[in-house]
Here is the input.
Amino acid sequence: MKKSITFALLGFGLGSCAPLGAFLLLWRQVQFTSALNDFFTLEWNQYHFFYEYMLVGTSVVFAFFGYFLGNDVDKIQSKNRRLLVESQTDPLTGLGNHRYLHEAFHHQYQKRKSDSEPISCLMMDLDFFKKVNDTFGHPFGDEVLRVFAHVIKKTIRPGDIAARYGGEEFVCILPNCNKGEAIKVAERVRETMENHTISFKKTPVKITVSVGAATEAGISANYHELVRLADKALYQAKESGRNKVVSI
Ligand code: GH3
Ligand code: MG
Ligand code: MG
Here is the structure.
């Protein structure tokens, strides 16, 4: 529930205690000598306007006060949520960034039900990307990065985590995904890029990608180790000719 509503209701509740407090203080003034029922009847008959006025007046004022206070808290919380998303998003591709990847992995790790559930990581790097920038310009390079991010998003499952690791390197964390399945996903990304043509002023440009895949099972899975292994596999893919998937 929004804080503005919660605080308004709280204010209304607190405000309505004012007539009750006044009633109890007045009862104490007569040393609690008359019975509660009798004192209430007496007070109500004589001063019901005073009590009604207090009930409505203070409750409404407190409810308004609560509403505006809660409204400010709502605005701050929604701004904080927006800032958190922005701090974890890569503005160029719309994918998560390095920080997001780290957070998402740990969130995913805590959710894992069984110790034997495998988790895979793909480290992907565009081939000869510097040359692409040098030949066609940086804006075209940016467009290639956006296309690649789109290909990744289209290929992975909804629960998978994708992020731009930095520059032209991207990482996917695939929860509950074994080695064979991870290779299939990696191959799909690699093939899609290989068969995809991005045009520069009507000139078709071919871009390929190398992928390193690593899989760990159960409690042994560790973010830094998984990424390190995928990076090692990526290095082997580059060394053995690029446009390849290598799995460790
Ligand atoms: P390799 O096949 O070994 O990966 O070669 P490479 O040229 O892709 O790798 P290298 O690390 O030499 O170059 C990466 C290039 O990526 C250099 C840098 O200009 C480019 N790059 C990094 N970030 C961006 C970006 O945000 N936009 C563009 N257009 N280029 C970027
Ligand atoms: Mg590269
Ligand atoms: Mg690189």
In short: The chain has a mean pLDDT of 93. Residues 92, 125-131, 133, 138, 141-142, 145, 167-168, 238, 242 surround 3'-deoxy-guanosine-5'-triphosphate (ligand 1) (CB under 6 Å). Strands lie at 118-126, 161-166, 169-175, 197-200, 203-206, 209-217, 245-247. Helices lie at 3-15, 17-29, 36-87, 98-111, 129-136, 138-155, 179-195, 223-239.
